[in-house]
Design a protein that fits this description.
- By secondary structure, the chain is mainly alpha-helical.
- It has a single domain, classed as MFS general substrate transporter like domains (Growth Hormone, Chain: A, Up-down Bundle).
- The protein is built from 20 helices and no strands.
């Protein structure tokens, strides 16, 4: 980090570190739950689609509760919402570790962790980081925070796989419970953002208006609606991979450790991608970059699934997909902040994210249903490829409508 930027950000560093750690843990633990799917489902007598239904419920709970969680931060502050989310995460993992049937898996992995993610994951963490940084360095800092959110998978996935193989899935989940305890101090430090006053709303920003008026303003904006629709496909692709890649590799007879290595590589290259797209978002059209990410992901998906996997191709796939993974986060967060300002950012970004999670539901549960029905993931990845290319092309085409300035800002002035 350049010294000038470091001096600028020094007062906000405890907040940014807390938000980064909170995001890293909440996303890393959640992305690694698929490691336990085969052994857990076999041990307690549920099907793969039952487990993926719980993950799908998690994504729906996360998505539909994200706008209310964002609105509650305006009324009560970020700190109490984030700490409550940390406690829900710990409870959800503990309930999973003690589970003996579908109901407790649904409550733990589905409902409780879903509620927690609405309070601790990307929309809230990125809103905290946005408010803590000045506009001149905001996109780059959002890339840094988003990149830090990938580091959790580098630790959680290998740890979970080692414990799962040597001690069983229950001990693996207990290890996750221990890791999740760090969410509480992370949320506490990130909650210092409540002491930072909001800047005055200006121009097209939505400032001192009601939540309903802010929501109507967002849903009446064509650029926001296009971005939100493409975000649906983003969620479908990513959650399909995190949920089903371990099962796919096992189905193909690959080393069980390869899935953990792949998830770790995704996390590592995600750091690079987040940094790059955070930097790029401060220089080029954010909607254009989003569209290119979706197209790129789809092409990588097609390349990997069109031939039998090897260890080398799987890790190369993980590296390319990881680079294109959470780079969307600084672009979406920066776009919402530019368009609508900071007061209602968490809520408006949460509305877009709710659509993302509907896609996540289909990626997790739909992939499991297709696998159970056909004994193959071929149809699932073909659908993901087709929808991803469509979303990316439409997003790029819409960005080209206003090539002289970021389309969301332009739309906000109309």
């Amino acid at each position: 980090m350049p010294s000038a930027m470091l001096r600028t950000l020094r007062p906000a560093l405890p907040i940014l570190i807390g938000a980064s750690l909170m995001l890293s843990l909440s996303m890393g633990l959640r992305q690694s739950l698929g490691i336990f799917m085969q052994s857990l489902t076999h041990d307690i007598g549920i099907s793969v689609s039952d487990f993926t239904l719980a993950i799908a419920v998690q994504n729906l709970a996360w998505g539909f509760l994200q706008p209310p969680a964002g609105a509650l931060t305006v009324r009560y502050g970020f700190r109490p919402i984030m700490i409550a989310g940390a406690l829900f995460y710990i409870a959800g993992l503990a309930l999973m570790a003690a589970s003996h049937g579908l109901v407790t898996i649904m409550l733990g992995a589905g409902v409780l962790i879903g509620v927690s993610l609405a309070c601790t994951a990307s929309a809230i963490a990125m809103s905290v980081a946005t408010r803590a940084t000045p506009p001149a360095v905001r996109s780059t800092v959002l890339g840094l925070v988003s990149g830090a959110g990938s580091l959790g998978a580098l630790m959680a996935a290998p740890l979970g796989q080692i414990l799962n193989q040597t001690q069983g899935w229950r001990i693996g989940l207990i290890g996750f419970v221990v890791l999740s305890l760090a969410l509480i101090p992370a949320a506490w430090f990130a909650g210092r953002i409540d002491r930072v006053p909001l800047p005055r709303a200006a121009g097209a920003e939505i400032g001192d208006v009601s939540a309903g008026a802010a929501l109507r303003g967002a849903l009446g904006n064509a650029s926001f609606l296009v971005m939100m629709s493409a975000y649906f496909v983003c969620g479908m692709q990513l959650v399909f991979i995190t949920t089903h890649l371990p099962s796919y590799l096992q189905f193909c007879g690959m080393d069980p450790m390869l899935s953990a290595q792949a998830l770790g590589v995704i996390g590592g290259f995600n750091v690079l991608g987040s940094l790059f797209f955070g930097w790029a978002g401060g220089r080029w059209n954010k909607l254009m970059l989003l569209g290119l990410i979706y197209v790129g992901r789809s092409l990588v998906l097609a390349w990997y699934f069109m031939s039998p996997p090897t260890a080398g191709s799987t890790l190369a796939f993980a590296a390319m997909m990881g680079f294109l993974w959470l780079g969307v986060s600084p672009l979406v967060a920066g776009s919402v902040a530019e368009m609508f300002g900071l007061r209602w950012q968490a809520m408006i970004q949460g509305v877009a994210f709710m659509n993302h999670q509907i896609g996540s539901f289909l990626g997790a549960y739909g992939g499991g249903v297709i696998y159970d029905m056909l004994g193959s993931y071929t149809l699932a990845w073909q659908l993901g490829l087709a929808l991803g290319l469509t979303a990316g092309v439409v997003q790029v085409a819409f960005a080209l409508v206003r090539p002289s300035e970021p389309p969301l800002v332009a739309a906000g002035r109309s």
